[in-house]
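#random but structural
TW: two for the price of one
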Amino acid sequence: MVAGALLLPPTGRQIRGLHHAECMTRMTLGAPILSPARMQLRTLTMFAAWESEAAVDEFLVGTGLGRALAAGWHVRMAFQRRWGYVSEFDGLPESVGEQDPAAPVVAVTLARMKLPQIPRFIRWGRPVEELVRDHPAKTLALAALRLPRTVSTFSVWTSQQAMVDMVRGLSAVPQPERHAAAMAERQRKDFHFEFTTLRFRPLAEYGQWEGRNQIRPT
């Protein structure tokens, strides 16, 4: 199931109401590079854009891949803001209007790597992974990849302000500048040929993540 989804991810031609799907395998933020936790090649994650919740429901009950994913955990979200660019999501506007800084938020990054830059990306990215993983304002933080070029992160935050403070190096945590320093290094010499950060309002969650529920802040 995992290998098939990675090699031939679902498309809108096959799945009614699907705009685009990124199928990846799970990574653990901050784990050693050469470790089973780092690259969990048997655990599938999917990030997808849909035209409606009815289309999501139909996929989850009407396809083998959907039924497999429905046995896990997923969150449904409403788009709020885009920074950067990845061609598969080029139809998204930069923003859909004002957002409440006190409201919960989900942040998703999606990057297409420049292969020669991967060692440098790891060197600057590992401290950021640890910052996000250990941050008290996040309720869940994950990463995923699809070899050889695609890397993604997914994090759920108690408030948009807490997430923005983390990005800017303003959090009251040890070494808060780690994310800001990595972004400055990326500006100096880019790690990616495409990169975007997407911000969402979490609407509802389904199932459990490793025995946990109520990951979406309320």
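TW: number two ↓
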Amino acid sequence: MPGRKTDVSDAQWLQRLHSFGLLRASFRPKGQIAELRAYVRQRERLLEYAASHIQHMQKALTEMNLQLHHVVADITGATGLRIIRAILAGERDPEALACLRHYSCHSSAETIAKALTGSYRAEHLFALEQALALYDAYHEKASACDARIEAVLKELSIHRGHGHGSAPRASRRRNRTDQANALAFDVREALFALLGKTSPRSMASVLTSR
């Protein structure tokens, strides 16, 4: 019934269930695990904030009729950011901008040039500049979290006295380090030194270990 449920009644009900042994104690990590989890969560929040500014950049480009998002998979990838930074530096020639494409970009220089013929209005360039600056700022702060995460993982490995050697060599496809949100250090090596594992679930196992 609306209005019948309160925080007090919830607390009393949980207390009663706990007295019957029907609830499990919540997990509260200690020491360096709690510290590591805090850095990881802070990093996730920063990347979420940065993602909102990707939308702002895309909107500013669209307002200028620059259809960059139609010719690159990610406007914050190597090709996209090169072009955006060049635009903000004053470059307007579509062909010159298209020459900034990364060699791995699927779209040709001709296709990119056609998508970069637009009207460079001052107000939209201003919005694009601010969105890029905020995107860069959040990623800079995320890099600071990377340094803390790497340091804690090293301390945990030394403290636990694990010596698993070097991680098995992964294929090029599975060992990509050019992703926009990738950690700034070799996560596989750090996790292998600590756990002897390099799977994506290894970090989760560290954060939930008792």
